[in-house]
Amino acid sequence: MEKEIQNELTLGKEAFARSDFGAAKNHFGAVLRLDASNGEAAQWLEMIEDILAFRHKDYYNP
User: If you average pLDDT over residues 25-33, what whole number do you get?
Assistant: First the structure.
């Protein structure tokens, strides 16, 4: 499971670097489903939410 978590974190960071925030949210969310206490994924998700709230109020609004 640790390998899967690391893979999802890497994919999330790569998506973030491409400004593909939807994909990044999905990858970091997958990490939290595997390990709800993963602080790194939670921090990335919080940062993405802040960026989207600032840049696109209705972008990716569920």
Answer: 97
Domain ranges of the chain: 2-55
Mean pLDDT of 16-20: 95
CB atoms within 10 A of CB 60: 11
Least confident of 10-14, 31-35, 55-59: 55-59
Which residue, among 58, 11, 56, has the nearest Cα to 30 in the 3D structure?
11
Average pLDDT, the chain: 90
